[in-house]
Design brief:
By secondary structure, the protein is mainly beta. It contains five helices and 39 strands. 9% of the residues lie in helices and 41% in strands. The strands form seven sheets. The protein has a 19-stranded mixed sheet that branches. Strands 13-16-17-20-19-18 form a six-stranded antiparallel barrel. Strand 23 and strand 24 form a beta hairpin. The radius of gyration is 25 Å and the shape is globular.
């Protein structure tokens, strides 16, 4: 695989990697300079490398920005910080990105569903991204694809703690095209490509000649942000950036795979443009290489794990080995298709689903499209898998059971209308979940701030002191909906928890 230069520092190995294919492309004089700087960086990289510069910026600002705390809420505008010398710093008047997609290690970024992105060389270090933690949930990598060190990973469950970063939808071929798409007018009046990165490499705080080393990497508490300027858009399929000279957080070992974000002027939102590949020192400046987001590669992996079924208002029966589509109620034979464990079943255009087995989809889930109604009937059979993803303005009437030896993960903005007592636990990341039985779930976990639990019967929650409901990262909403529920305590570990009583919840009609 082609790299950037004849020698480069690898965050995975903490040293130099020789790349002979490109050595000829570097002139002798330039090559000697680069080798000298790379060698000095390699020696310093694991022992004395500078990292977070707190000579004029408070350490807390680097951490709060990456963790979206305090004034650094996603979408916040006109954010300024006060430097140690009393001056104001404005981040070029950029809005604040949502960094919730960053795994606790900082070395991977969720992009929605059961997918995340990192760099391929992180596989050498299982601590980085092989198991990814978001809030109180752990996810394991079950498959991957990679190219030019960019890697898309499939996880064993739908990630509920975040809707994920918005991937870049385009890859401009030239710097001028990139400047048009991602450029902003900076505080000095010039147009530049300015972005942010969030990672948690081996963290040290530098103040002049003094240094405080945490001796820690891959810690969410030390997730910190970088502000950068892209200086070269395409260098062997990667972009190159340099750090801001004031808000200066230099990448170091452990930062490989961390996500880089630019503001998309067309979409009017922050997008994930790539993952951190490596660093080099050139003429005394540290440069960082970002391997670009590869939409084709991502789509290939998603297609591999998707089995699409157009219900079109009809019904299907599902077993562990096959699925049978019936065109109407009189069609008793139907059309049968084989299904494969670990694949997602993607239903479109509404209809009825009948379980004929205790279904174990492994790392596969069930995905429902937007704007339709689905009726799921279990007939006493159970389902277990990556979770349930319900599209916008869709409702899934769940008259089935989830396996009691697993946890149901619910994502997507649509509504899950649970009509039976489950005897299982649920984690909710987005959308509505209606509870129609006493103690519908044993325990309910709400994360991301985008989910809502709605009571449709008295005492729909559990009966312990917390009523079996727990609010974690960014919380969520509990709507009593005019029903009685007893609490002794409220369990909330983060901001964003809301308890309300609307008594006006209406289900969509189709």
């Amino acid at each position: 695989m082609n790299k950037i230069y004849s020698l480069k520092y690898s965050a995975a190995t903490g040293g130099l990697i020789a790349v002979s294919e490109l050595a000829k492309r570097v002139s002798g004089k330039t090559n000697r300079k680069l080798v000298a700087t790379m060698l000095s960086l390699a020696v310093a990289g694991t022992v004395n490398a500078a990292n977070i510069d707190i000579s004029n910026v408070w350490a807390r600002d680097y951490l709060d920005l990456a963790q979206n705390k305090g004034i650094f809420q996603p979408g916040a505008t006109d954010v300024t910080i006060t430097l140690k010398n009393g001056d104001k710093f404005s981040f070029h008047n950029l809005s604040i990105p949502d960094f919730s997609g960053a795994a606790a290690s900082g070395a991977a970024t969720a992009i929605g569903g059961s997918y995340s992105v990192t760099v391929a060389h992180n596989k050498k270090n299982p601590q980085a991204a092989e198991t990814q933690v978001y809030a109180q949930s752990s996810y394991k990598v079950v498959d991957r694809r990679n190219s030019n060190d960019f890697e898309i990973q499939r996880l064993n469950k739908f990630v509920v703690e975040t809707v994920g970063a918005t991937p870049a939808e385009t890859n401009p071929t030239t710097y001028s095209d990139a400047l048009e798409r991602y450029g902003i007018v900076t505080s000095d009046g010039s147009k530049k490509i300015i972005g942010f990165r969030a990672g948690s490499g081996g963290t040290s705080f530098i103040n002049g000649e003094s240094k405080i080393s945490t001796n820690s990497a891959y810690s969410h508490d030390l997730l910190s942000a970088s502000l950068f300027e892209v200086t070269q858009w395409d260098s062997y399929g990667m972009m190159i950036y340099k750090n801001d000279k004031t808000f200066r957080n230099l990448e170091i070992f452990g930062d490989s795979g961390s996500g880089a974000y630019l503001y998309d002027n067309k979409l009017e939102k922050w997008v994930l443009v790539g993952t951190t590949h490596g660093i080099a020192s050139v003429n005394g400046d540290q440069l960082t290489w970002i391997t670009k987001y590869n939409d084709k590669l991502v789509s290939e992996l998603k297609d591999t794990y998707s089995h699409k079924i157009n219900l079109n208002g009809n019904n299907v029966t599902i077993k562990n080995t096959d699925i049978t589509l019936h065109q109407n109620n009189a069609d008793t034979t139907g059309t049968q298709e084989k299904i494969t464990k670990d694949k997602d079943i993607v239903f479109t255009n509404g209809g009825d689903v009948l379980f004929k087995d205790n279904l174990d989809f492994g790392s596969g889930g069930i995905i429902f499209d937007e704007g339709h109604e689905y009726n799921i009937n279990g007939q006493g059979f159970t389902f277990k898998g990556a979770g349930i993803d319900i599209g916008k303005e869709s409702i899934v009437n769940w008259n089935a059971l989830y396996s009691s030896d697993d946890v149901l993960h619910k994502i997507g903005p649509g509504t899950l209308n649970v009509q039976k007592k489950q005897g299982a636990n649920i984690k909710i990341g987005e959308g509505n979940v209606l509870l129609n039985e006493e103690g519908t779930f044993n325990n309910i976990y709400l994360a991301s701030g985008n989910g809502k639990v709605i009571l449709n019967k008295d005492n729909s929650l559990g009966n312990d002191q917390y009523a079996g409901i727990f609010f974690t990262k960014r919380g969520g909403t509990l709507d009593l909906n005019g029903h009685n529920q007893t609490f002794t305590r409220i369990a909330a570990t983060d901001d964003g928890t809301t308890i309300t009583n609307s008594d006006t919840v209406m289900l969509p009609t189709y």
